[in-house]
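Milestone 3.1: sequence recovery, worked example.
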């Protein structure tokens, strides 16, 4: 097990990406795809239309609590703890079906029409320089198999090492590679890695969860503790991931440190 762990850490440091096979069974993946379809259907009925080139819902776990389980995966947790530290947190997570459904809804009104479709990285920039590698990571759970035909994510290996140049949105990078995997595969990549979502298929779905993790002092995209205020059933691990123990105190009389024990 330790050998496996070291292999993943080494892959992430040198290539910027690593793959964990068979984390979830095919049967489970198919079961959850049905749940995702239902969630998207209800979301569109109640809230907003989803995109034509990708149907993406962030904070999917707040609409269906059963999906919280995908934020904490034991094998992934071991890797992230080692790479970041024990207090690492969730920054954002999206449920995405990269699929061209050709419905042609008005783009302005759809929710994340083509999220991640152009070359980008998901790191942060200070003084014109990208943060160093190893600051934060994206975890991809493949519920459908990821193939070239269904718009799998593309990436440029070792690009997490480049800090003073940025990917060109529409360029075709000759040395780019594909994030491929069977149903239930999990990939982890350094957020500095240049990547983009592949062209969506109109035949094959590509259900996946993308979750972005970082150190406890990084701001989440959404106010998770408020989202779950009344929910006391969250496990300690989930509470930690959702920032429950890293909210600053009201003032110095309440306490003089940010991190607390759960
Ligand atoms: Fe991205």
């Amino acid at each position: 097990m330790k050998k496996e762990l070291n292999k993943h850490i080494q892959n992430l440091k040198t290539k910027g990406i690593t793959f964990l096979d068979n984390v979830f069974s095919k049967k489970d993946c198919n079961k959850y795809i049905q749940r995702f379809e239902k969630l998207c259907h209800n979301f569109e009925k109640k809230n907003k239309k989803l995109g034509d080139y990708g149907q993406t819902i962030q904070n999917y776990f707040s609409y269906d609590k059963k999906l919280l389980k995908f934020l904490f995966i034991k094998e992934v947790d071991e890797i992230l703890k080692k790479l970041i530290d024990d207090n690492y947190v969730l920054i954002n997570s999206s449920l995405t079906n990269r699929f061209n459904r050709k419905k042609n809804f008005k783009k302005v009104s759809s929710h994340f029409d083509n999220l991640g479709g152009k070359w980008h990285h998901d790191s942060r920039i200070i003084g014109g320089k990208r943060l160093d590698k190893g600051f934060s990571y994206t975890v991809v759970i493949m519920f459908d198999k990821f193939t070239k035909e269904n718009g799998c994510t593309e990436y440029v290996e070792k690009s997490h090492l480049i800090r003073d140049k940025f990917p060109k949105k529409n360029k075709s990078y000759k040395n780019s590679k594909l994030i491929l995997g069977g149903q239930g595969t999990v990939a982890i990549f350094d957020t500095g890695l240049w990547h983009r979502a592949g062209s969506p298929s109109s035949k094959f779905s590509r259900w996946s969860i993308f979750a972005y993790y970082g150190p406890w002092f990084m701001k989440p995209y959404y106010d998770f503790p408020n989202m779950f205020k009344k929910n006391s059933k969250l496990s300690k691990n989930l509470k930690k991931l959702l920032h429950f123990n890293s909210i600053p105190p009201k003032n110095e009389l309440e306490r003089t440190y940010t991190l607390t024990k759960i």
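The chain has a mean pLDDT of 94. Residues 26-46 form the longest helix (21 residues).
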